[in-house]
Specification:
The complex is a heterotrimer. Chain B is an all-alpha fold. Chain B is 83% helix and 0% strand. Chain B has one domain. Chain C has a single domain, classed as Four Helix Bundle (Hemerythrin (Met), subunit A) (Up-down Bundle), CATH 1.20.120. In chain C, 74% of the residues lie in helices and 0% in strands. Chain C contains seven helices and no strands. In chain C, helix 1 runs antiparallel to helix 6, helix 2 packs antiparallel against helix 3 and helix 2 packs across helix 5. Classes of the chains: A alpha/beta, B mainly alpha, C mainly alpha. The interface between B and C is medium-sized, with 33 and 28 residues. Chain B: It comes from Thiorhodococcus drewsii AZ1.
Chain lengths: 205, 223, 252
């Protein structure tokens, strides 16, 4: 479903990678590995369409992602280095706004349930700036429960999480892949899969 | 579309209500800058009436300039802006909603406080009404054009100064016709009509093109 | 991007071409300057105008008008390269835009400076809020803004694209700004600069003005290419062809 051909990206005047190609089918998890500065984040941002590659093309269901634009972004969930939540808003408000922007109509009940499942019972109504680092990250990760997007692109999703949250996230990703989704992630944690396959991509020498 | 627009608008207004000081600083900046002029130029009412419109407009330009720095900055820092770029909505719509919220918080208060500063400059009632109308049409244009600069200078060191360097020259037409309308209203009220026609035309053009340019700038800045 | 003419769009192949062209442009610059200045000083009338003629000092026109033209042309050139860069994502076009900007800013400054000196004897003032003067000043601000934005951004790619977008927005705004200054009162319009009319101008004056313009163009090419070559070297420093070039230099 996701095809990458002859991708070349530069950061500043430095070439990060060149002639990169791979194809991911439904039900695949791809681990992107590489040293610091090898271009892992740039690759993920390129896959999202945030970064325009210097060469090459990315296709989603056979069409270029630049041509698809909003239709591609509807199928995509990106989780970056920042949590992407507002400190002044509550977890509930943050997720409700996110869902509206994704074009989903979610009931408040669904969001309450998601926050409960991610382990934030009792914190739903607090401005998120009152929460700890790990809790903020959990608010952001609750999007994974609510989303219907088939393509997940996760940049270091496991950092700052405690053991329980890591286990929960692993199971979320495994379920997503088992249900025919695609996940691309950079991480040092392994995600055990019961079905589907794992691909490895090594960046840099 | 409308639902998304409203969602962002109410989000930004809620955020501002939970951090009220930001709104008030712009307003007080405007009032203070305007109040300094009579102290510097002298308090003779003839002179004040002549420089009044220009001073109020320049102060409005600077106030909206200062506030613009924050238009995208907070969302940029916590990553929500990046998420907005990845939603299934046209980015220019989101930008337009953000600019609208920004104008309600920083432009509209200037319009409402205008009678007060108008009185400081001994402006007539007619001139004050014209000034309010001109600000009402003109300040949204300032926010719209300024948003392009704010998007371009996102996250840069000394972004505020740079922003004014880039954007203030582009504000000239609004300054010319905005203060011109007030100037002319002291002589003949009917003559202000072409000024409003021009400002209105600028507003329409800015409404169409500025969000597109701003979202292009945001995409560049967030690469 | 595998079209044939994109071959020259690669910095590596353009670098030597620019190197060979620079001396040519310098020679043309000097030649045309010599002709233009000679003609301007010795072959033209010593007075300009009818009832209230301008004396010798009008000769500043041979610097003033060409540099004012150049300042506008170069901004359009800059925007052209910037737009090509944004559309085709070619790095050389951004470098080109980047190399043009300082030359454009210098010509704008020159036009303002000579304008002030011409204004003093003919209008009795160094500066007037005349539409063209003011627009030229705004154009100067636009050049400065472009250069400032580019140098404020560390990431060259973002710098290129952001300043390109700014230049385009600036180009769209210039006519509006000019018009608003030209016509501050929409109920009536007036301007201090006399309408210029090329056909009414004396043949000798026109000749030296156009020669000077050509000379300035050649200078523009020479200066831009020199700047472009150093930009290419800095930005391509890690590429093998630059390394080879450096090694060859060291051995020589």
């Amino acid at each position: 479903m996701l095809e990458v051909t002859k991708l070349e990206c530069r950061r500043g005047d430095r070439r990060l990678f060149t002639d990169l190609g791979f194809a991911l089918n439904a039900g695949t998890l791809m681990h992107v590995r590489g040293r610091n500065g090898s271009g892992k984040t740039t690759l993920l941002r390129t896959l999202c369409g945030l970064f325009i590659p210097d060469e090459g093309e990315i296709r989603w269901r056979g069409e270029s992602i630049r041509a698809l634009a909003e239709d591609y972004r509807r199928d995509l969930l990106y989780f970056g280095h920042t949590n992407g939540i507002k400190g002044e808003l509550t977890g509930l408000e943050n997720l409700a706004i996110g869902a509206t922007l994704d074009g989903d109509r979610l009931s408040e009940k669904a969001i309450w349930d998601a926050l409960e499942r991610i382990g934030l019972t009792g914190f739903e109504d607090l401005p998120t700036r009152m929460l700890s680092q790990g809790q903020k990250k959990r608010v952001a990760l609750a999007r994974l429960i609510l989303t219907k997007a088939p393509l997940w692109i996760l940049d270091e999703p496991f950092t700052a999480l405690d053991v329980d949250a890591v286990a929960l996230l692993q199971s979320l990703i495994a379920d997503h892949v088992a249900a025919g989704g695609i996940a691309v992630l950079t991480t040092h944690q392994e995600v055990p899969l019961t079905s589907g396959q794992i691909e490895q991509l090594n960046l840099g020498n | 579309m409308l639902r998304v627009f409203w969602c962002i608008l109410s989000r930004d207004l809620t955020l501002a209500m939970r951090r009220r000081t930001d709104v008030l600083t712009t307003l007080f900046f405007f009032v203070i800058v305007v109040s300094l002029f009579p102290l510097g130029v002298g308090t003779e009412s003839k002179a004040l009436q002549i420089i009044g419109p220009g001073v109020v407009w320049v102060a409005a330009l600077l106030a909206s300039m200062l506030a613009l720095e924050r238009l995208f900055a907070a969302d940029y820092e916590d990553g929500t802006l990046e998420q907005m770029l990845l939603t299934a909505q046209p980015l220019s719509l989101l930008v337009l909603a953000k600019v609208t919220a920004h104008w309600i918080l920083t432009g509209l208060p200037l319009v409402l406080i205008a009678p007060l500063v108008g009185m400081q400059f001994q402006l007539t009632d007619n001139a004050i009404i014209i000034m309010m109308l001109a600000l009402l049409v003109g300040t949204p244009i300032l926010s719209l054009i300024g948003a392009i600069g704010a998007a371009l200078t996102l996250g840069l060191r000394g972004g505020g100064i740079l922003l004014s360097l880039l954007i203030l020259p582009l504000y000239i037409p609004i300054l010319v016709y905005g203060s011109g309308a007030v100037e002319v209203s002291r002589i003949a009220l009917a003559d202000t009509q072409p000024y409003f026609a021009l400002l209105g035309a600028f507003l329409l053009v800015a409404l169409i093109f500025a969000p597109v340019a701003s979202s292009a700038a945001l995409k560049i800045s967030l690469e | 991007m595998t079209l044939n003419w994109f071959k020259f769009a690669s910095p590596a192949s353009f670098y030597p071409i620019a190197g060979r062209l620079i001396p040519v442009f310098w020679i043309l610059t000097l030649l045309l300057l010599a002709i233009g200045l000679y003609w301007g000083f010795f072959e033209t009338a010593s007075k300009l105008g009818g009832s209230n003629p301008q004396k010798e000092y009008y000769r500043i026109i041979f610097i003033h008008v060409p540099s004012a033209w150049m300042s506008m042309w170069l901004y359009i050139v800059l925007v052209g390269w910037a737009a090509i860069g944004l559309v085709f994502n070619t790095r050389l076009s951004f470098m080109m835009a980047n190399a043009v900007a300082p030359t454009g800013a210098i010509f704008t400054f020159l036009a303002l400076w000579t304008g002030a000196f011409w204004g003093r004897p003919s209008w009795g003032t160094y500066w007037d809020w005349d539409p063209r003067l003011t627009s030229e000043l705004v154009l100067f601000f636009l050049y400065i803004g472009y250069i400032a934005l580019h140098s404020a951004i560390d990431d060259t790619r973002r710098a290129d694209r952001a300043s390109a977008l700014l230049a385009i927005v600036g180009l769209i705004m210039v006519p509006v700004i000019f018009w608003s200054i030209n016509c501050p009162d929409p109920n009536q319009c007036a301007a201090l600069h006399q309408r210029s009319n090329l056909t009414r101008i004396d043949g000798n004056i026109l000749f030296s003005m156009l020669t000077m313009t050509l000379a300035f163009w050649m200078y523009g090419f020479a200066a831009t290419f020199m700047r472009l070559r150093s930009i290419i070297l800095t930005r391509e420093a890690e590429n093998t062809w630059v390394q080879e070039l450096l090694n060859a230099r060291r051995q020589a």
